[in-house]
Structure formats: C-alpha cells, structure tokens
Amino acid sequence: MTPLEALAIAAAGFVAGGVNTIVGSGSLLTFPTLLAFGYPPVTANVSNNVGLVSGNVSGVYGYRAELRGQHRRAATLAIGSLLGAAGGATLLLALPSSVFDDVVPLLILVACALMLVRRRPSAQGAVDHPRAALAGSFLTGIYGGYFGAAQGVIMLSILRLCFHEDMQRLNAVKNVLAGVANCTAALIFVFAAHVAWDVALLLAVGSTLGAQVGAKLGRRLPDGVLRWTVVSVGTTVAVILFVT
C-alpha cells in the first residue's frame, strides 16, 4: 500500500464516519474505495465492516445527550440487531454477495418513502409499537451484518414509524443499533474471515474522527431537514445500486 492509497482510505473512512452518524450509507464510499485498490469483494466487505466499528462507537458518543432516557429502548432493540447481524454475517460467509443485489435498492426506496409519511396519532393519542420496532431491528440487523449500505436509512425509517419521538433522539438510537449490528458482524469476521488489518486500522482512525464531526453537524439539523437529508441520501444510494 502506497502512502497515497493509505491517505485515500483514511479520508474515505473520515467521510463515511460522518455520513453514518448523520444518516447511514457510508459504506457506499469506503467499500468501492477498497475495491478500486484491488481488494477482493469479501475481504473488502469484511475489512470495511471491522474498520467502521470504531466510527459507530464514536457516533454513539457524539449523540449521547439525545440518548438520555432511552437506554432501555436502545438496549431492547439492540437484542434484535445483535441476533440479526449474527445471521447476516453468517450468510455473507456462505452466500455470494450478489444475492441481495436486486432487492436492496427497492428496500432502500421503500424506506425513503416511509420516511416521507407523516404519522398521525390515533384516537387514543400517540401510540408506540416497540414489538414492531424489535422485529424491524432484527431484519435490518440481518441486512447490516450481510452488507449494510444504508442500513441507517432503513432503521431510522422503521423507528420513525414505530415511535412518536423527536428525529434526533431516534437518530441516536439508530446509531446504537447500527453500531451493535456492525460490531457483532465484525466479531464474527475476525474469527471466520480474512481481515486486511492495515485497511481496517486506517478506516478506524478516519471514521472515529469523522463521526465526531458528523455528530456536531447532525445534531444541529432541524427535524425536517434531517428527514429530507435521509430521504435524499437514501434515494441516491438506491440509484447508485441500481446502475452498478
């Protein structure tokens, strides 16, 4: 690896860390970067996942204020993310990466459409649906463990449908769930797959710093702006996946 390649990978990790913290889908930058430098797809996917875990942790720390009063909710939903990611990581090691190629863009577009839906309280007032959110965290965890591009978009859309809550507070929970999914998959990959540790370290440093910048910027966004940012990024990711 040349110094220029190392700088490019660290820079991609920095941007991905910020994007993941605010919205999700940072892997759409780092994964192609690794492919461009000649790493095999599975090695790139595995190393990318391992390298971005520290960025997830950094993002959770950056949103710690918005997590206050939500620890039980986050812990409960994290169980679904953990179990789902374990299954998704196992699928990645057993199945070709093309399995989800046709489904993923449609899934992301559906999530974007759901993000645009305005929830109306029922006659009994605002009703939350924690069981549906747990099921959603499990299914999104499977996808997160398998590949994970825009898993934050999908998870945030599910949380918004299931809970009447401020978008920034839901984004804080989303960061926890994405972090749990990525960490679970990373632990499996460390023992069952080949990790390019030099790449993972560069991504870790970059994403950790980027997540802090992302948290500072993201927490200042009004709910409406954050919602449209998620929709815009998600739609862009879906289009990219459709044409590649």
Which SSEs are present, and which pair or pack?
Layout: H1 3-22, H2 27-36, H3 41-62, H4 64-67, H5 71-94, H6 104-116, H7 130-146, H8 151-162, H9 167-192, H10 197-218, H11 223-243
How many E-type strands? 0
Radius of gyration from the alpha-carbon trace, in angstroms: 17 Å
N-to-C order of helices and strands: HHHHHHHHHHH
* CA-based shape: globular
Q: Per DSSP, what share of the residues sits in E-state strands of 2 or more residues?
A: under 5%
What is the structural class? mainly alpha
- On the 0 to 100 scale, the average pLDDT is 85
Q: Biggest sheet: strands, sense, closure?
A: none
* Helix run count: 11
Helix content: over 70%
Stretches where pLDDT falls below 50 for ≥5 residues? none
- State the distance separating the first and last CA atoms: 26 Å
Q: How many domains, in number, for the residues?
A: 1
